[in-house]
Amino acid sequence: SAPGRFADYFVICGLDTETGLEPDELSGENFEQTPLRRTFKSKVLARYPENVEWNPFDQDAVGMLCMPKGLAFKTQADSREPQFHSFIITREDGSRTFGFSLTFFEEVTSKQICSAMQTLYHMHNAEYDILHTPPTNDKDSCCSSTGDCNGTSVSKLQRFNSYDISRDTLYVSKCICLITPMSFMKACKKVLEQLHQAVTSPQPPPLPLESYIYNILYEVPLPPAGRSLKFSGVYGPIICQRPSTSELPLFDFPVKEVFELLGVENVVQLFTCALLEFQILLYSQ
């Protein structure tokens, strides 16, 4: 039986520099998109501990749900704000385990990956030229349409070559994740945000990062039913509360976000459908 720990796994997903850039077929790869808009396969880079007997690690499910859209690349010109999301893994026996992921962007330090991205852009631009340049023998027509009579379409390169290895800094998405037996969303979000802050801060945290991860995995227990728990994060205290057996089940998600996403009228309509026992399908990207 589970020993009642707050979290079972700490997971890191992202770019595997050894396998390089692999198209993510599950995300519906579209080669007509520019390389920076394509998605690439992410991998589970590390997890700790390796395995726990009461919650076997499902690498495929965790990897896919941590980064459902695969790897994303950006340059210094793009917005790179961290994004948080949660997920649930339901097993065949009906048991559940919960995941909470913080996805952020870090600079690509591998020269091979940067060169591969540059090569993809050269290939994309060449294919665009072939597909969109009308066959003609009229040199004047060529000059007037491209603005360059030397065979190089400067306007097209400026438009589509939005990554230049000599000019731009390449960033790739990376994810840190907690796998937990209960859905303490707010607490897990704070843990991950403080860990990310410690990594990106110019000043190192008071203790090594490994000690905070060890603490959350081995020293922080699940709060008893009907009790709250306060434990230390990297930069401040974190509080979570577990409802008693006589209360409604744990639902640690802000209802405000539902209204922000759907609007008041749609929420009222959904609530009405639920009361009338209609079937409800929520469709999302």
UniProtKB/TrEMBL annotation:
Coiled coil: none annotated. The keyword rRNA processing does not apply. Pfam families: DENN, uDENN. It comes from the Eukaryota. One of its GO terms (cellular component) is cytosol. Transmembrane segments: none annotated. The keyword Protease does not apply. One of its GO terms (biological process) is retrograde transport, endosome to Golgi. Keywords: Guanine-nucleotide releasing factor. GO terms for molecular function: guanyl-nucleotide exchange factor activity; small GTPase binding. SMART domains: DENN, uDENN. Residues 24-285 form the UDENN domain. PANTHER family: DENN DOMAIN-CONTAINING PROTEIN 5A (PTHR46070:SF2), PINSTRIPE, ISOFORM A (PTHR46070). This is DEN5A protein. The lineage of its organism: Eukaryota, Metazoa, Chordata, Craniata, Vertebrata.
